[in-house]
Amino acid sequence: MLKLPIGIEDFEEIRTEGFYYVDKTGLITELLNNWSKVNLFTRPRRFGKSLNMNTLKYFFSYGCDPKLFDGLAISEETELCEKYMGKFPVISITLKNVEARDYKGAFANLCTVIGREALRFRFLLESERLSEEEKQQYARLITVGEAGQQMFLMTEDVLTSSLQTLSSLLYRHFGQKAILLIDEYDVPLDKARQHGYYDEMVDLIRALLGQVLKTNESLYFAVLTGCLRIAKESIFTGLNNLRVMSITNLQFDEHFGFSDDEVKAMLLYYGLECKYERMKEWYDGYRFGDSDVYCPWDVINYVNQLRFDVNARPRAFWINSSGNSIIRTFLQKADHQTMDDLEQLVNGLPVIKKISEELTYRELYDSTDHLWSVLFTTGYLTKRKEIDLDTYELVIPNQEIRVIFTEQILSWFQEKVRKDAITLDAFCEAFPAGDPVKIECMFCSYLKQTISIHDTAVRKEKKENFYHGILLGLLSHREDWILRSSAESGSGYSDILVKIKDISMGIVIELKYSESRNLETACRHALEQIEEKNYADRLIDDGMTTILKYGIACRRNTCMVQMADM
Asked: Do both 280 and 356 map to the same domain?
């Protein structure tokens, strides 16, 4: 049985070392049949950009092993294979690791990326087709520091002309124009924005790309990938032959991400057909052009888990590789209207927003209007339909992203309320004081500061988990209390158990989400469950002599609290 290529972006390794491969070589066919001099694909992280770029490298490069493509879609295009396979010098770099705390460090990283790629062509030093001056030009690309110092010693002039120089030398040597592949071209700009050297990096990238992409007679064509199209930065100033294929374009829409048929085929291969609905609920829902696609990173990771544990629950794999700073920034800047929009999204309803796909990293976080565009282009939101030019009906694509939103909302909310320690202390103290009226009043006030979960498509237990998370976060303010969440006690699992050792007091809290406005009934059921399941037993066994029991019912942004008789 084939292995799953988790984190493997090398096409040759996947094809020769027994890994499962979802055939995306149709990208080559479409690219060759309809390409511009410079092609930019913008897609969210973890949707197969890097693997696709590596596949292009192997297909076009001199010395290509045709067996790598046996049985794949591109192998059926015999004329294209005859004309293009293994016929070009290929320069292939990724800028995803070009990051540092200052410009000097980032500059050095970029030199390293290009210098290492240049080293693949050391035969140029012995080329009979190059002059001594041209060989010296090449030597400046690969010169490193003293022994033990692996830094490439390029000046700024050498670096900015490096890709143009390399393509020119390869053209001279082979008599064939070069193909240029640049993966994650915009990562250095994002990192520079974060660390405060943005203007310098913009100038550097503009000069680097400008020289190699504009009027370069040594270039056959170029393919770039990234998350955003950086147009207003003038990164591509004067580049009239640039074609951008974003997530809204119909072309190439199925070549990034997995289609429904591709996911079904993978599940069938591993005998996991029964997990299709769960897979679809959690990882489908992205809309690229006119195609519905799954996130490949999620699908592969979840299938891998299911191979060893058929009962494994879905997880938010994507967030572990993409971070959460975007949502956090969004929440921090949100006004009342934005929070209302967010509440609609989390509850399965669409919002209508005008989207700009040509933002700059400088202006990404200037306003919530821009943030909607960021959430869309980075995969946190997807389009349901187009309303007008650049105006879309946006939704959260799937359960994974819904979980990411709710977790980040809870985290943001907890940080927000902790700033008012006095109020939070008063709320916590109301529990051992046996004051359900005060608890209810203050908890309702807190709930009104965040969004509510009332989507009919969300299972009741998921709604309860959300409010459970809010309450648990509030109570965790008391570091001298011992809290247990979903703890085994009696004949079941209680929502929250609290031990206050100083006064030998235990508190049992059972929380319910009420689908109706009858919160009182939900509270009563919560208290009855505490008694029926003997949730207090664990606290009693731990030596707590006083036990308080609370039933809490929530519905949207309101609640009711009842306390059992002592």
From this structure: no
Write down the residue that tokens 């996911």 correspond to: 263
**pLDDT over threshold 60, residue 512:** yes
Confidence class of residue 233 from pLDDT cuts 50, 70 and 90?
Answer: low
Residues 168 and 256: their CA atoms lie apart, in Å, by 31
Q: What percent of the chain has pLDDT over 70?
A: 96
Contacts of 346 (CB under 8 A, 6+ apart): 396, 402, 405, 406, 409, 451, 453, 455
Q: Point out the least confidently predicted range of 125-134, 295-304, 405-414.
A: 405-414
Q: Which residues of 67-105 are buried (b: 16+ CB within 10 A; e: fewer)?
A: ebbeebebbebeebbeebbebbbbbbbbbbebbbeebee
Provide the residue range defining the domain that includes 381: 321-401
Q: What is the average per-residue pLDDT within 27-46?
A: 92
pLDDT tens per residue, range 39-90: 999 999 889 999 999 999 999 999 999 999 999 999 999 999 999 999 999 9
Among the residues of 378-453, which ranges form H helices?
A: 399-418, 421-429, 436-447
- If asked whether residues 140 and 183 sit together in one domain, one would say yes
The span from the CA of 372 to the CA of 365, in Å, is 10
Burial class, 324, CB count within 10 angstroms (exposed 0-12 / middle 13-18 / buried 19+):
middle
Greater pLDDT, 141 or 361:
141
Residue 281 lies in a domain: yes
Spatial distance between the Cα atoms of 473 and 396, rounded to a whole number of angstroms: 25
One-character DSSP codes across 301-314: HHHHHHHH-TTPPP
99 — phi, psi (to 5°)?
A: -150, 145
Residue type, 487: A
Residues 71 and 219 in one domain: yes
pLDDT of residue 148: 53
Number of domains observed in the structure of the chain:
4
pLDDT at 564 over 80: yes
Rounded to whole angstroms, the Cα distance separating 39 from 486 reads: 52
Report the SS3 class of residue 197: coil
